[in-house]
Design goal:
The complex is a heterodimer of chains A (167) and B (571).
Chain A lengths: L5 E11 L4 H11 L3 E9 L5 E11 H13 L3 E6 L5 E12 L2 H13 L3 E5 L3 E8 L1 H11 L3 E7 L3 E4 L6
Antiparallel strand pairs in A: 1-3, 1-4, 2-3, 5-7, 5-8, 5-9, 6-7
Chain B lengths: L5 E2 H11 L4 E4 L6 H7 L5 E4 L3 H15 L3 E5 L3 H4 L2 H9 L4 E7 L15 H5 L5 E4 L6 H13 L5 E7 H5 L1 E2 L20 H13 L3 E5 L1 H5 L3 H11 L3 E3 L14 E4 L6 H9 L2 E5 L5 H4 L10 E6 L13 E4 L2 H11 L6 H13 L12 H12 L4 E4 L3 H9 L8 E3 L9 H11 L5 E6 H7 L3 H6 L5 E6 L4 H10 L15 H7 L3 E5 L5 H10 L5 E6 L36
Parallel strand pairs in B: 2-3, 2-4, 4-5, 5-7, 6-7, 9-10, 9-12, 10-11, 12-13, 13-14, 15-16, 15-17, 17-18, 18-20, 19-20
Antiparallel strand pairs in B: 1-8
Classes of the chains: A alpha+beta (167), B alpha/beta (571).
Chain lengths: 167, 571
């Protein structure tokens, strides 16, 4: 694999649950010109820590450096790149589609194939909730583009290591 | 609970006393008045600076001299932002500082209150850690953590932002508190496998070179390094900040390497078959063109900071740990190899390409520093500012013991040298302290002459005065067709009269023939600070020089006959 190849990375961090921690972390990425594609901050089973799941793209060598610099921050308990590891990765999206009565059945059929939940329905619109891997959400998105997508919100990827391994 | 009521400011000062703080370098203002008030009831001595940047550099000089955190106390807003240059200077050079800033009351945070600035936010990129205290009960723990973080591992500055309402809030301190730093781990012994690997490399090398950095001084590895060098007969070079990690008057020393390093150190870098960095971060001033630096040599990197590995160069062996502990372990494993031909080659280079300068003509900066070196014989703490004089001082003032050479390396902060000398002199009142400065940098912080005078500090300020911003002028001469832009410091004051107006003693050197006499006179003056204005040749250049970002093979030893290509590296 090319060391300088640009690709997407799944990074997880366990951090102190304090104000300002997010800025310290994003500064490390920004300083090296690394773009954050998605970022999820959530509580953990222990209220003094937060979990961050970050998807970012850029070259691997720079990312290795960034991970080490993240681990250096006093508020970061640990940071690791899970790219290429066997982990569970999930994302949730809400997609609002323009859906007059005549194409409703068609859209619902697509939605069924992707195991979506219909969370809102009006005469002209349909809101779908979908969970799964990034590929699945991307595929659904492509399928729905032939109808008019009015709005879309994606949570960004959350990651958890399988088995006894820690995330 | 102790049963004794304290306010936040008092608890802060209590915390500093528990850390055996001797001096606070500071400047008062509205938001830190409660702390200045609490300070009156403590044995800690306040050193009142004339500018907050000066206070920060003083604390830095104190810290580099003692290894203990220097403490700065300033007010909110501009008081705090004035420290940022000093904080960044300390951050780049791994110097422990605890910077305490007053802050507006917590209900006013973020409301653009008078003298409010988001100081902890501003500090993020240039501190090891920072705190904004929101609860008075946290004061004792945060003070303890701040010192621990600042001084341990790879040291650095820690900032504490203390809102005024927290400073006056009453509470009963609980003496049974724990630090809570689950994400802060300090490496000690390196990985034994990597150490064995490095020992094998060292035992096989026939042309090895040790590169001593600031980390070796911070971890007090000088003895271990010396044992390694002497046992294995390995020559030793040092970075600008590593000066003193190995005695520069030792036969195995080749002095400083890099952009303005000695020719023989740089030749050793080009020819070695192994280079081992002990606490240096392979800074761009050292590696020049990184991808071909020591291309065919085995590279070993010992560092306490894992993020330095594979940053500038990719070594063959990285050992993550404390420099002293790692080198001590290496010493038990290495087996001497025959390095005699290598040492002989280095001796030849030393004879053929010594540091030199012409003694004819106007006053030579190199002569002033060379004679100063002869007079003090390494028995002094020398601080240097930033510019040509700094490089000449690094070349000619030989450092023989750790923590006696203080200069702003990573940040290259002009104005650092003189206030740092104040901090060093306070830390070591009986030691000879000399600040070597340029006329440019000195004027950035010379208001601290008051601080030196009122504290009767017998430090000596040697101004290498060419009435130019000499290093920039040198670059404009060499790389910009002698098109001088913004480098002429016309309008400089009469530095002797200036010193006298502050109540300091002034000396002036104009001729090469007067150097020894006047320097000796100044060194003998101990009733307070003195300033020695050395009016040196205006257009002299620092050589050797490896143009920024270039390989060592492009080293220039003297003023080139034809124009050089513009350097590809940064500044």
């Amino acid at each position: 694999m090319d060391e300088n190849s640009v690709d997407s990375h799944s990074i997880s961090l366990l951090v102190n649950n304090k104000p300002g921690v997010l800025i310290r972390i994003s500064l490390v990425f920004a300083r090296r010109g690394y773009n954050i594609d998605s970022l999820v901050v959530s509580p953990t089973q222990n209220e003094i820590y937060s979990r961050m799941s970050i998807t970012a793209s850029g070259d691997r060598q720079t990312l290795e450096q960034i991970i080490k610099q993240l681990n250096k921050l006093v508020d970061v308990i640990h940071a690791c790149d899970h790219t290429g590891e066997v982990v569970v990765e999930k994302e949730l999206a809400l997609i609002k589609v323009k859906c007059p009565v005549e194409c409703r059945t068609e859209v619902l059929q697509v939605s069924e194939h992707f195991k979506c939940q219909t969370v809102d329905i009006t005469e002209d619109t349909l809101m779908l909730q979908v969970t799964g891997g990034t590929d699945k959400l991307d595929a659904l998105h492509t399928m729905l583009t032939r109808y008019t997508i009015l709005e879309m919100v994606r949570t960004g990827k959350i990651i958890m290591a399988r088995g006894v391994a820690t995330t | 609970m102790s049963g004794k009521t304290r306010d936040g400011a008092q608890a802060l000062i209590d915390g500093l006393q528990q850390q055996n703080v001797e001096f606070i370098f500071g400047y008062p203002g509205g938001a830190n008045m409660p702390v200045f008030d609490a300070l009156l009831d403590s044995p800690i001595k306040l050193i009142l600076s004339r500018h907050e940047q000066g206070a920060t550099h003083m604390a830095d000089g104190y810290a580099r001299t003692t290894g203990k955190a220097g403490v700065v106390l300033v007010t909110s807003g501009p008081g705090a932002t004035n420290t940022i240059t000093g904080v960044m200077t300390a951050h780049m050079d791994s110097v422990p500082l605890v910077v305490i800033c007053g802050q507006t009351i917590t209900p006013n945070l973020g409301l653009d209150a008078f003298q409010e600035a988001d100081v902890s936010g501003i500090s993020f990129p240039v501190v090891k850690h920072s705190y904004l205290i929101k609860n008075v009960n946290d004061v004792p723990r945060i003070v303890k953590e701040a010192f621990y973080i600042a001084e341990s591992g790879r040291p650095g500055p820690v900032l504490i932002d203390l809102p005024k309402d927290i400073a006056v809030a009453q509470f009963e301190p609980d003496n049974n508190f724990d630090m809570h730093l689950p994400g802060y781990v300090i490496p000690t012994h390196g990985d034994p496998e990597r150490i064995s690997e490095a020992a094998e490399y060292l035992s096989r090398a026939t042309k090895p070179l040790l590169l001593v950095g600031h980390g070796a001084i911070i971890s007090k590895a000088e003895r271990a390094v010396r044992i390694l060098a002497e046992k294995m007969k390995i020559p030793v070079t040092s970075t600008l900040l590593g000066k003193g990690g190995f005695p520069e008057n030792h036969a195995l020393s080749v002095g400083m390497l890099g952009m303005h390093g000695t020719a023989y150190a740089n030749m050793a870098v080009m020819e070695c078959d192994l280079i081992m960095s002990i606490g240096s971060r392979w800074d761009d001033r050292i590696v020049g063109q990184a991808d071909i630096f020591c291309k065919d040599a085995v590279k070993i990197h010992i560092d306490i900071d894992e993020s330095e590995f594979n940053k500038m160069i990719c070594p063959d062996c990285c050992i993550h740990g404390d420099a002293r502990l790692v080198v001590e372990e290496l010493n038990t494993q290495v087996v001497p190899n025959d390095t005699a031909p290598w040492l002989k080659q280095i001796e030849k280079w030393k004879k053929k390409f010594p540091l030199s300068y012409k003694k004819r003509g106007g006053l030579k900066a190199q002569l002033v520093l060379d004679e100063l070196n002869n007079l003090v014989q390494g028995d002094a703490i020398i601080t240097a500012d930033v510019g040509q004089h700094q490089m000449w001082a690094a070349q000619f003032c030989r450092t023989t013991t750790p923590a006696t050479w203080l200069t702003s390396g990573g940040a290259g902060t002009m104005g650092y040298g003189f206030p740092a000398a104040i901090g060093a002199q306070l830390a070591q009142p009986d030691k000879l302290v000399i600040a070597i400065v340029g006329d440019g940098g000195f004027q950035m912080t010379l208001c601290e002459l008051s601080t030196a005078v009122i504290n009767k500090l017998p430090l000596k300020v040697v101004i290498i005065n060419n009435a130019y911003l000499g290093m920039v002028r040198q670059w404009q001469e060499l790389f910009f067709d002698v098109r001088y832009s913004g480098v002429d410091l016309e309008g400089n004051p009469d530095f002797v009269k200036l010193a006298e107006s502050y109540g300091a003693r002034g000396f002036r050197i104009r001729r090469n023939a007067d150097v020894v006499r006047i320097l000796s006179e100044a060194l003998a003056y101990n009733d307070g600070p003195c300033v020695i204005d050395a009016e040196v040749e205006k257009e002299d250049n620092v050589f050797p020089m490896v143009p920024s970002g270039h390989p060592y093979t492009d080293m220039v030893l003297e003023r080139p006959k034809q124009k050089l290509a513009k350097p590809v590296g940064s500044t």
